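User: I'm curious whether this sequence folds into something compact or stays loose and floppy. Could you predict its structure so I can see for myself?
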Amino acid sequence: MRKKMYKRKPNTLFRQIGNEFIFIDYGESRFYSLNIVASRILQMLGSPKDVYQISERVSLEFEVPYKKLLQDIRSFLQVAVKRGLVKEVFITESE
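Assistant: Here's the prediction. I'll summarize afterward.
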C-alpha cells in the first residue's frame, strides 16, 4: 500500500524576525512571510509526514480541535505543493 506524505523542499531555511516567520527558498530566490502555524507545519516537514500526523501534532501544540484543523491543513498543503514549497512523497508500506 502506498501512503502519501509531505516533505519540505530542500534548500530552504527558516528565520524568525520579531513576531514574523520567514521561509527562504534559496533554489528559487524567494521568501515567504508565514504565520506561526504555517511556519510550524513547514518545520515539521523536514522529514516526511502524512496529513494526519501533522494535524495531530498541530492540534496538540496549538490546542485547536483536530477535526477543524484537518481540512485547513489539507488546504495549506495543496497550496504549498503548488508553490513548490512542499513535495508529495509516496511511501510503500507492507501490510
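Summary: The radius of gyration is 14 Å. The mean pLDDT is 91.
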